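Hi all, long-time lurker, first post. I run a small reading group and we've been trying to get comfortable going from sequence to structure in the token notation. Rather than ask abstract questions, I figured I'd post a concrete chain and ask someone more experienced to write out its structure so we can walk through it together at our next meeting. Sequence below, copied exactly:
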Amino acid sequence: MRAARSHTLAHIAISLCGEGRGHATRIATLAERLRDRHSLLIFTSADAFEFLGRRFGSDDRVRVVEIPGIVFQYTGGRLDITRSIATGLEYQARRLGPLVDLMLRELDAFGAELAVTDFEPALPRAAARLGIPLVSVDHQHFLLAYDLSTLPWWLQWQAWLMSHAVWMYVTETADTVVSAFFRPPLKRGWEHVVQVGPLLRREVAGAAPHHGGFVLSYLRRHTPFTALAALADCGLPVRVYGLGEREPVGPVSFHAIDERRFIDDLAGCRCLVSAAGNQLIGEAMHLGKPMLLLPERAHAEQLMNSHFLAGMGCGDFTLLEQVTSGHVRRFLDRLQGFRPALEAVAGRIDGTNDVVRVIEHRLTAARSEQASDAVGSPG
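-- Answer (accepted) --
Happy to help. Here is the structure in token form:
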């Protein structure tokens, strides 16, 4: 067992799923806060590796390591659940074991005192083998911990099915934190879970919202052209992120991902028409922006997010594959109706401080335990 450290600086290992914007944004926010006092080793893959590498590449307190990760599979532009599950099982059978062995060496060399994971399966297993306390901070644990009885029955069934993946990804934890823009009651047996809002980057938390004359849209790479046509016919200029920079389609302009510019556009847009990711929904709610969400038909988590947002009165949704200009225009006509619900949550949703408190508390407890073990060990 490692000896207790006498100084404040701690060594914290973090892992996260590399797929999607939400995981990377959440961990970037957390790392920005933790790096002021601690040394961080971050394991991730795919888009998140590039994003975090750009953000912390010159930071001597943060090291970002690329690992193999699970990637969602698409067929004909739609999320393919069967192929995605098959890919996940193959990953677990072929790549997870060697990855855990790699992490064991990295954690030992780093001197990790605490592990934090955002829906990544290797670090929890490595941390358990080394006796390092684990804090889970993600969105996906809502599938296990939250009372989802307000959802349609078929989405409740999907949540039960998907919850098995959460068990597979994350083993026993010292603390479980769920970051979500919605907060229904916890299920019996899950009262220990800490519920927090989305983790907001400092740039988002400090942005000054105002109402411009354009619609902001963030879309995933497999968005069908019919959805773009619906946006082009909505009657307002539309700025689209997520599909790369390309030639405009009528009033629809396409922009490369630029975090500063995207935040400026989010603060200044009239509303958001977007994929239904938890992180971006939380950012838009913080800035008081009405939302029309476009969940994919086969993406159950996005559908659940969409139902919760509509139930809160902060926006509406329609399927990405079915959206028309009529849907978008009707949403634009109803913007004022969403303002009261948004005003009740705007500026009050950031969960970053709550997560930092959980991590610091667990770190203090781990050090106290190590100190007690050191005192009680024979000389």
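A couple of things your group might point at:
Residues 1-6 have pLDDT under 50 and may be disordered.
The CA atoms of residues 8 and 61 lie 14 Å apart.
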